[in-house]
Amino acid sequence: MILSMTGFGRAEDVFEGKKISIDIKSLNSKSFDLNIKIPLRYKEKEFEIRKILNDRIIRGKVDCYINIENLEETNDVKINKGLIESYINELRNIASDGPDFEYLKMAVRLPDAITSRPDELSEGEWEALAKIVNNAVNRFEEFRKTEGKILHEELERNIKNIDKNLAEVIPFEEERIGSVRERYQKTLKEFENVDETRFYQEMAYFTEKLDISEEKVRLTQHLKYYQEVMDNEDFNGKKLGFISQEIGREINTLGSKANHAQIQKLVVMMKDDLEKIKEQTLNVL
Question: pTM (2 decimals)?
Answer without folding.
Answer: 0.72
